[in-house]
Amino acid sequence: MNNAEYDPLAEDYYQSKFLPFRVFSEMPDHLELLGDLKGKSVLDVACGEGFYTRFIRSCGASICVGVDVSPEMIRLAKAKEFENPIGIQYEVASVTSMGEVISGGFDVVSTAFLFNCAQDQGELRGMFQEIYRTLKVGGRLCATVGDLGHRPTVDYSKYGMRTKIAEDLSEGAPYEITFLLPEGSFSITDYNHSLETYRMMSEEVGFQFEGLHPCSVTDAGIEKYGSEFWEQWLASPCIWRFSARKV
Ligand SMILES: C[S@@+](CC[C@H](N)C(=O)[O-])C[C@H]1O[C@@H](n2cnc3c(N)ncnc32)[C@H](O)[C@@H]1O
User: Fold this and answer.
1) What is the pLDDT of residue 5?
2) Which of 79, 106, 183, 188 has the most crowded CB, counting CB atoms within 10 A?
3) Residue nearest atom 19 of ligand 1, based on CA coordinates
4) Measured over all CA atoms, what is the biggest interatomic distance in the chain, rounded to whole angstroms?
5) What phi and psi values does residue 168 have, to the nearest 5 degrees?
6) Is 48 in the pocket of ligand 1 (CB under 6 A)?
7) φ, ψ (nearest 5 deg) of residue 133
8) What percent of the chain is helix, strand and coil (3-state, nearest 5)?
9) Per-residue pLDDT reduced to its tens digit, 43-79
């Protein structure tokens, strides 16, 4: 991963967090996966500008640390912490080499859309290994991942995403996602890994895999946009969650 890849996208990426699929599906699903965080020490890996990190702290985490490889993402996160201090520590580091800034012993590692940034299985394994190291025994990895690479023909544009995905994309191959925002659009590159690869990698580094879940939609989302709007979202779920425990 090139450190600077997300630097020019930091503000736009934050704006994409207000798309309906994020508000009524991705975000509630990820917070539900994290469970009760009261009194827990939580590391948010690939925290971006701190979107989930702030939720994690406000849900009662006693220690809350965010790490991201993009200096601009962390600059934004720290600016928000400066404006409204809630006690989050942010560090610039790659997950694969965060040993210098992050020690171990966390109850929970939260991560959203990190694994889609791994350009091959070697990098993916390195991410899982480092996350495993930072958890205490009994601690949980809670991950949200994209699965668009396996859905090349589905049109997600009504949800605010346009994709450019080759059919029969191989493991690790790149694909493009364009977020369609009211003020314009921007694109990111993700890398294709199967849901089975995430399970396999978890187990390979020593985790006990706890399960994989497709995205859902909240009642508030159905009330606001109608069930027909969400039919395709739920029929071809491109966001999944899984958890794994350090044993
Ligand atoms: C799609 S964004 C998600 C940000 C945040 N988790 C969220 O959901 O709002 C992916 C983030 O992963 C970060 N990232 C990619 N590779 C990384 C790595 N090796 N170590 C740490 N962060 C990484 C990027 O800089 C970017 O901020």
Assistant:
1) 86
2) 106
3) 94
4) 49
5) 50, 50
6) yes
7) -60, -40
8) 40, 30, 30
9) 999 999 999 999 999 999 999 999 999 999 999 999 9
Measured from the CB, is residue 94 less than 6 Å from ligand 1?
Answer: yes
Q: Which atom of ligand 1 lies at the shortest distance from residue 118's CA?
A: 16
Q: How confident is the model at residue 2 (pLDDT cuts 50, 70, 90)?
A: low
Q: pTM, whole model, 2 decimals?
A: 0.97
**Fold annotation for 3-146+193-223+237-246:** Rossmann fold (3.40.50)
- Picking from 70, 25, 15, the residue whose alpha carbon sits closest to that of residue 48 is 70
User: Would you state the structure tokens that stand for residue 218, as one six-digit string?
Assistant: 């909240």
Q: Where are the domains of the chain?
A: 3-146+193-223+237-246
Please name the residue that has the structure tokens 């995205």: 215
Candidate from 69, 141, 193, 238 with most ligand 1 atoms within 8 A of CB, to mutate: 69
Contact of 172 with 119, CB cutoff 8 Å: yes
- What sign has the CA pseudo-torsion 92, 95, 96, 100? positive
Establish whether residue 149 lines the binding site of ligand 1, counting it when its CB lies within 6 angstroms of any ligand atom.
no
